[in-house]
Amino acid sequence: MLTIKGPQGRINRAVWGPLNKTIVTAGEDAVIRIWNSETGKLLKESDKETGHKKTITSLTKSADSSHFLTGSLDKSAKLWDIRSVTLIKTYVTERPVNAVAMSPLLDHVVLGGGQDASAVTTTDHCAGKFEARFFGKVLQEEIGGVKGHFGPINALAFNPDGSVPGNLKGEAGTSEP
Question: Whole-prediction pTM value?
Answer without folding.
Answer: 0.82
